[in-house]
Amino acid sequence: MATVACTSTDEPGTGTGTKEVEVFTWWADGGEKAGLTGLETVFGTECKDFKFVNGAVAGGAGSNAKQVLASRLQQGTPPDTFQAHAGAELSDYINDDQIEDLSAQYGEWGLSNAFPKGLIDNLTVDGKIYSVPANIHRANVLWGNKTVLAKAGITKDATTLEGFFADLDKLKAAGVATPLALGKDWTQQMLFEALLISKLGPEKFNALWNGTGDWAGADMTAAITDYKKLLTYTNSDRDTFDWTDAEKMLMDGKAAYQLMGDWEAADLDAKGFKDYSYSVFPGNGNVFQWLADSFVLPKGAKNADGTKCWLKTVGSAAGQAEFNKKKGSIPARTDVPADGFPAYQQAAMNDWKTAVQVPSCPHGSACAQTWQGAVGSAQGKFSTDGDVAALQAALASAAAEFGPKAK
Ligand code: GAL
Asked: How far is CA 399 from the centre of its chain?
């Protein structure tokens, strides 16, 4: 076990008097909370001078937490650390001058070679590294209820979109009213992105986010048309559901499938549901749609020393093992042994080594928060009106207004 010894310099007259480290996340329940508790445990051993304070605000993908955080940052009352996604989302905080450069700590803690170079690039702006990654999650995973699938005669998940539509029809014919469980805005973005990867392939999908792609083309129209069809297999009350409500439909056997990131593996495990299958979304092949949770040191944090001990814990092999075993993700560090990880994560670790990587907009690796907000509203409107041309126009104008070309 790597040691993460930290001491407080918070002596009378030199510090702010606090030993507390407020850790702000949206990991409030189930597998997400279990992962956070894993990190808290290592922090408790390695950072004895400090006290963990849980600042979690519930709501999948930070749907509530991000607003609370934005207003705290604006008011100058940041938590001691908060969770931020690697990539464009992190750049938002860097550009707004809200977080500290951690390059010196990378040197001091030996982190520079601990993570894949591509990931470090996503945490770096102008040569400075701004956060410590905790994990790699995969977004494009299809979860299934094995019993419901078997009853409809489906013993193997489809590997093409056509095959998937055929299976969804089989499920309907077998009396499953809602073959595919779905939730609100950001979960719809995820389903749409998985379908886009199948329809466009990884190069064109990546191009959409780096400013060289075409949101207005005929292939996008065809993808949105297929997405409209896909929505007919989902629950009509989707816009009121968080991802865990859709997950409950799967667990209760009311739905056969759900597209969701691999925090679902941890959550199903935490809830004791064992009857699940998983596969990459049909047609995605060996594409690994990645995202990474990372932690930062906000400017003006009350207990910077405590935060540093937290960040050192997050970046340590011991911290990454305890966290990721419970969280459904895989360690961002390349030197954490696979032993002791659940079967799902062992499979994901293998896939990660050879996969084609693409980022995710709703989980910050592909797009800034302003862009994500615009896509989310367009998607929400489409969920109600099903207007293909309107969605395509809205996506194209969101890319023009908030994408890399707008800068
Ligand atoms: C993502 C986050 C994951 C998981 C998920 C659902 O944005 O990266 O760790 O928490 O939201 O809430």
From this structure: 21
